[in-house]
Each structure stands twice: as structure tokens, then as C-alpha cells.
Specification:
Layout (H helix, E strand, L loop, with lengths): L1 H18 L3 H9 L9 E6 L8 E3 L7 E2 L7 E3 L1 H13 L2 E6 L5 H6 L5 E7 L2 H4 L3 E8 L2 E6 L17 E3 L5 H6 L7 E2 L6 H9 L5 E5 H10 L3 E4 L13 H8 E6 L4 H11 L4 H14 L6
Parallel strand pairs: 1-5, 1-6, 9-10, 9-11
Antiparallel strand pairs: 2-4, 3-4, 6-13, 7-13, 8-11, 8-12
């Protein structure tokens, strides 16, 4: 990656200055915070397998961006659209890196990526590890089932009692929401969102828990699925308070702790945008997602 190359060169330069007796210059270089975009490139990580947030495709149609750590593959989706808007506003180039879900936060912490734009909920636990810009989307939590399922008429989570279910690994959906369903047969979490949806499509489970954008993308691909949205009812998933609910509904962009330069630059782009703006961009992503993606 160009950013990493630049950092290596900067480190070598600092060492050479020290060797030549230029201690003050070396100290200045060391004391200067690293914001990640010194080279004019914003390096963004995402799964590239989480439609409609992000997905992989074989060409640059609909404004897709090359995935730098793959050969001849491109990323697109809501997250890519958002990353492009941030880069355009700041005059940066965009580099997309494909990464597994569990490696996203460690990659930010170690400085491998400048930012993660990957449909992450702004939870308190994550906020202890990274700083969040945004929100860049408000995503209510819903369930998906098959139209011919006995659970299709559910009016609240109590009506899902006893059903088999799953969700994606290391998400609020799996860790907090599914356990609230009385007598639920909670199966092993899936590694990815597409795998979660395939478990439902193949009748491996009766229903899955996810967020509204993922559900909207799913029904566009799988017409036999229906969305169960209990938002605003007594039958909705419960959280300790409104702050905790907001943390799990608000979707943010993570950067390294203390990187105020990048945090402020991203927030300056997001702040003028409304929920309607976010929803319009998401509707565009849903409309162009490949049918092969779930």
C-alpha cells in the first residue's frame, strides 16, 4: 500500500537524520501525529461481501473501485459510495482493501488501514478500541424469514419463540438480540452476511436477525424472504436505555484512537447529511447490487 510505503520511508528518513546529528529534526518528525493520509490516499477496509453495504464485482461498472489486495476485482456498495464522497471532498485518492470482519478493528489499531467503512454499529465496546465518525446511517434491527414460514405473521419477538435462528458472528444481532427470543434455537453464528442469508434460504434456520439495509438487500435478491420489522412496538428487541439502542442502530466509520485530523475531516463531510440523504444513497446501492450477492 502506498500509505505504508510512505510511512516506511518517513521512518528511514528520521533514522538517517538522527545518525547525522539532526536530533531536533528527528524529534519533530517523531512528534508529528500520523493521520494516515499524508500521502493523499485514504486506505479503507471492508469485507467486500456484505451487500448492500459493500460487495465484490468483476468490473468497474456503476462506479466500482478496484480492491487493492486482489487481482482484477472491484468493490461497490453503500460503503464505497460513502468513501468516494469523503475522498472527493478532501481531495484524497481512495484505496479499498478487502478484510475479514474480525480483522477490521485490529487493522485500525495497528495502522494497517486508515478507516473502516463496513456497516459497523457504534457500540460502546467498539468505541473503547477505535474512534467513530458519524453516524453515516441509521439502521433499525429486524428479522428475516421465508414468506411461507409460520413465523411470517409474527408481530413481535415473542411470536418467534422456539424458532431456529442465526446471525453473523460478532454482531449485536447474534450476541444481544437473538438471546432475547424465548426458547430460540440459536444455531452457530455465520462468518458472513451472505452465509447467514443462505442459511435462511436453504431452510437451515427459520429466521435470521440483521439490520434493515441488509434485509432490504436480501429481499431484492431472494423474493421469497420477508422482513419482520418490530421497530417502535412493545414486541421490539430491548436495550438497557435509549443510549444503548442508539449505539446499536447508529452505523459509524472507525479510525485509530486519537486520530482527530481524520475524524474531523470525515465528520465534516457527514455532518450536513440527513437521514433522508443516507437512505437515498442506500436505495441506490440496493438497486445496483449484483443479483449473485446476498
Amino acid at each position: 500500500m502506498r500509505r505504508i510505503t510512505a510511512l516506511v520511508l518517513a521512518a528511514l528518513l528520521a533514522l538517517s537524520l538522527t545518525a547525522c546529528g539532526g536530533s531536533s529534526a528527528a524529534e519533530t518528525a517523531t512528534d508529528t501525529p500520523v493521520n494516515g493520509v499524508e500521502d493523499g490516499v485514504l486506505t479503507v477496509a471492508m469485507e467486500c461481501a456484505y451487500a448492500p453495504y459493500n460487495w465484490t464485482q468483476n468490473d468497474d461498472s456503476n462506479g466500482a473501485v478496484p480492491i487493492s489486495n486482489t487481482e482484477n476485482l472491484y468493490a461497490n456498495g453503500y460503503d464505497v459510495m460513502t468513501a468516494k464522497a469523503i475522498c472527493e471532498a478532501n481531495g484524497w485518492e481512495l484505496e479499498i482493501i478487502q478484510a475479514d470482519w474480525d480483522s477490521l478493528i485490529p487493522g485500525i489499531q495497528s495502522g494497517i488501514y486508515d478507516a473502516v467503512i463496513a456497516g459497523q454499529s457504534m457500540t460502546a465496546e467498539r468505541a473503547e478500541q477505535v474512534d467513530f465518525a458519524g453516524p453515516y446511517l441509521y439502521a433499525s434491527i429486524v428479522c428475516l424469514t421465508k414468506a411461507n414460514s409460520p413465523f411470517a405473521s409474527a408481530k413481535g419477538i415473542a411470536d418467534l419463540a422456539g424458532g431456529s435462528c442465526t446471525s453473523q458472528l460478532a454482531t449485536i444481532w447474534y450476541d444481544t438480540c437473538l438471546p432475547q427470543i424465548q426458547g430460540a434455537d440459536i444455531r452457530t453464528a455465520t462468518e458472513t452476511a451472505p452465509a447467514m442469508l443462505m442459511a435462511l434460504e436453504t431452510d437451515t434456520v427459520d429466521f435470521v436477525c440483521t439490520d434493515m439495509p441488509t434485509a432490504q438487500g436480501a429481499v431484492a435478491v431472494y423474493p421469497d424472504m420477508v422482513i419482520l420489522d418490530f421497530t417502535g412496538t412493545d414486541g421490539d428487541f430491548q436495550f438497557a436505555n435509549e443510549q444503548e439502542r442508539a449505539e446499536n442502530v447508529n452505523i459509524g466509520i472507525s479510525v485509530r484512537k486519537g486520530n482527530t485530523y481524520l475524524l474531523d475531516a470525515i465528520n465534516a463531510v457527514l455532518a450536513p447529511m440527513t437521514a433522508d440523504d443516507f437512505n437515498a444513497r442506500m436505495a441506490e446501492a440496493v438497486a445496483i447490487q449484483p443479483i449473485s450477492e446476498g
